[in-house]
Amino acid sequence: MEKEYEFWPDKIAKELAKKWKVEKQVVTTGTSMSGEPHIGSANDVIRGHAIVLALKKMKVPAELVWISDDMDPFRSVPQDMPKELENYLGVPVCFIPDFWGCHSNFAEHFEEKFIQQLKTLLVEPKILRGIEMYKKGMYNDVIKLAMKKRKQIAKILNKYRTTPLPEDWYPIDIICEKCGKISNTKIISYDEKKAIAEYECVEETALLKKKYEVNGCGYRGKTSVLNGRAKLTWRVEWPARWVFLKTTCEPFGKEHAAAGGSWDTGKEIVKLLGWKPPYPVVYEHFLVNGQKMSKSLGNVITVPDMLKYMKPEHLRYWMFQGKLTIAKDINLKQMVPLLWNEFDKAERIYFGLESSGNERKDQNFKRAYELAVVKPKKPSPVHIPFEVMVEIVKILPEKNHLEFALKKLVEFRRIKQVNKDIEEEVNKRLEFAKRWYEDFLKVKIQTEKIEIDEKRKMAIEELIKAIEREDDGEKLQKEIFEIARSSGVEIQEFFKLVYRIILNSDKGPKLGPYIIESGKENIIKKLREVI
Predict the structure, then answer these.
(1) Three-state DSSP class for 489?
(2) 329 near 286, Cβ under 8 Å?
(3) Angle at the Cα of 254 (from 312 to 318), degrees rounded to 5?
(4) Rounded CA separation 153/272 (Å)
(5) How confident is the model at residue 507, as a pLDDT?
(6) In this predicted model, what pLDDT tens digit does every residue of 142-176 receive, in sequence order?
(7) 507 Cβ contact list (under 8 Å, min separation 6)
(8) Which of left, alpha, beta for 214 (phi over 0: left; psi -120 to 50: alpha)?
(9) Distance between the two ends of the chain, CA-based, in angstroms?
(10) Local structure of 78: helix, strand or coil
(11) Where does the pLDDT of residue 482 fall: very low under 50, low under 70, confident under 90, or very high at 90 and above?
């Protein structure tokens, strides 16, 4: 008997409901706020959202949590940011001022951007900021427990280390009360009953990102390790928050799941702290044109970059399709037309207007579409292949773009009649197609100076005269044929020449009607430039 097909979020949701007998499933995600959020920053949150939607479809109470890891130390200065930020290396990002002057701190500047991007992508998780979690005491109990069990935690960590942790290792980093750095402090002693640590901000150099040398200020003092004065080290902080958030599932990138990585240590440490390991959802990271996304390569893609060419539901659909363990390659030139057309197809299949002829494929299309749109109501009033919209973009007149596009779509029999809904949808598709064309096709066409002989110049002069006196597109079409014949230029060659002059292409729409519809003045101007 063939196993019933399940889309990946539904499969995970069923396994969660089976494994965790809890009042509420909690899917936790987190993002470092040390710079501009990119498309990869949204990876775990959007995938987590799909799992929560699948759980809710099963009538299982579920919540999506997003944590801003704004207590992380600032480790490197991105190339596109003020050099003065080097003065804050080793300081938690939530304590760095906002150099743009619009938010209370550096981390919040990027948090707000990211939260708005998630909202655009139909994701509104419960938002928790690291600094607030610490200050409100959410970590207090697990900090005290981790400090008490530090030897056992060190033993777990040492299993995966080549160099064992020192005997005086502690699972927290103190924030220096004098210089604000968290990267250089060292605990000298700890009073377990009072939860107070004596520490020193050591002056010896800490190397961040194998690039930046950061020195401590030499300050020595005592402080509570609770309420935001200290931060758990990452390998302990991750399982610690699973405990008090009661996390049952967490999506994360494959680097955490590497042998001896933070998942291997986390799933052991969490048991020491009083909770079970959550269900892991491991995913591959995005590539850009076949390469790893990297600021040094200059190929970082953000959510707004993607949404320049597609709707939010398109981006969600693309992220949900395919296996989690296979890297998705962002090649905007290739993927955008394919994605628009596939999404339209999925929509038609979802609403029973079409079938792929394969039941399993249909189920896949339907579920990916449903999760992408979240609450499907009705199909788009019109589905137009992206390449058709691009062909229209190529021949747009100077003005009245929408009116021209609608007229062409009627001519092409893509739409029968125009109403408000169709007009709005065509306008959206036209704008996306224009942006894609400008960025990926038009800029690739070499704009060469067209040099022509006297015979062809005379033919172009005759064409200009014909355009000036003729207002009927079909009549002008006949005149163009006559001009080519009488000038002795091969008809096909003459049309190709005119297309190159006015459209920068070897072919195009029916010339006569196009010249009249797109505006004679602009066409004549282009023709005069070559004679």
Answers:
(1) coil
(2) yes
(3) 20
(4) 8
(5) 80
(6) 999 999 999 999 999 999 999 999 999 999 999 99
(7) 496, 499
(8) beta
(9) 75
(10) coil
(11) very high
Secondary structure of residue 102 in the 3-state scheme:
coil
- 146 neighbors 240 (Cβ within 8 angstroms): yes
What is the C-alpha to C-alpha distance for residues 225 and 466, in angstroms, rounded to an integer?
86
What pTM was computed for the model? 0.87
Chain segment 282-312, per-residue pLDDT in tens: 999 999 999 998 876 778 999 999 999 999 9
Please name the residue that has the structure tokens 């509104």: 124
**In what order do the strands lie in the sheet containing 279-283?**
126-129, 62-69, 25-32, 249-253, 279-283
Tokens (6 digits) for 58: 């099963």
* Alpha carbon 46 to its chain's center: 10
> Cβ distance 498 to 511 under 8 Å?
yes
Q: Which two tokens stand for residue 42?
A: 């949204």
Integer Cα distance of 58 and 9 in angstroms = 11
| The token pair that represents 324 in the structure block | 């989690």
HSE-CB of 105 using CA atoms within 13 angstroms: 17
Q: What is the mean pLDDT of residues 414-436?
A: 96
CB atoms within 10 A of CB 399: 10
Assign 3-class secondary structure to 372-433: HHCCCCCCCCCCCCHHHHHHHHHCCCCCCHHHHHHHHHHHCCCCCCCCHHHHHHHHHHHHHH
Instruction: Count the Cβ atoms, other than its own, within 10 Å of residue 468.
Output: 11
Q: Are strands 185-191 and 196-201 parallel, antiparallel or unpaired?
A: antiparallel
For the beta carbon of residue 100, count every other beta carbon within 10 angstroms: 10
- Going along the chain from its start, the domains and CATH numbers come out as 8-140+234-284 (3.40.50.620), 172-232 (no CATH), 386-444 (no CATH), 454-528 (1.10.10.350)
**Which residues are within 8 A (CB) of 200 and not within 5 positions of it... i.e. 6 or more apart?**
185, 186, 188, 216, 218, 219, 220
Instruction: Name 62's bridge partners.
Output: 25
Instruction: Say how far apart CA 34 and CA 209 lie, in whole Å.
Output: 13
Sequence-distant contacts of 431-435: CB under 8 A, at least 24 apart: 432/309, 432/310, 432/311, 432/340, 432/389, 433/386, 433/389, 433/390, 433/392, 433/393, 434/393, 434/396, 434/401, 435/308, 435/309
